[in-house]
Amino acid sequence: MTSVTEPVVRLQDISVIRDQRALLQSVDWTIDPEQHWVVLGANGSGKTTLLRVVSTMLHPTTGSVRVLGETLGRTDVRALRTRIGMASAALADQLRPQLLNTDVVMTAKNAALEPWWHTYDDADRTRARDLLISMGCAHLTDREFGIASSGERQRVLLARSLMTDPGLVLLDEPTAALDLGGREDLIATLDELASDPAQPPTVLVTHHVEEIPPAFTHCLMLREGKVIASGSIDWVLTESNLSRCFDRDLELTNHGKRWSARIR
Q1: CB neighbour class for 76 (10 Å; exposed up to 12, middle 13-18, buried from 19)
Q2: Which of 120, 138, 199, 229 is the most exposed, fewest CB within 10 Å of its CB?
Q3: DSSP three-state, residue 168
């Protein structure tokens, strides 16, 4: 008898309306186990709003949200958020710069921003240190978050997103503030994580096809709050879809499993 595995995320007919403006319109999206998604779209297309809905930080105006077997509006989101790994510029801005990087990672256990709000033990601290080491940040464990470079902060946040062995990881433009070397290092790390069957499904939000790790499997494209294409990356990522997504006549190429695009 074949077992049926529930989707990690299921959004049904989602709309988000603010000040009479539709930030998302009638979005349907399903993420299954072992899938790794990239969400592409121009500024203002609804990417971050979509991620906020999936992370349970934002309730939609209409539609149904189900994440990790729980239905938004019928579950304790405080507990659910500890099962969702998250890294974003907004989260980085919320963290006190004087926090040690070990504490930044460790507090993800309770989806908290400060260590004094909850009790942590030696095992929690060891787990946080081990994750930092695995991200190439052994030298940062006892340093303050605020004095780390942009690339180092992104690696600390990536370590934080894995603290609870989450069922889902959400990354909102993690390479935005990085130089070329930092960007390529982080993409390589994300590719390595996505290639590991033990790692959870991941959603990566970006503006740039150049930032898609080769191991990512699926793509969703947004334009003006609407999904214009969604599915296997080999099927969705075409010149036609990308041009429609960004409202430009784009040339799309692939070099050794890495993508690039430019205006014709």
Answers
A1: exposed
A2: 138
A3: strand
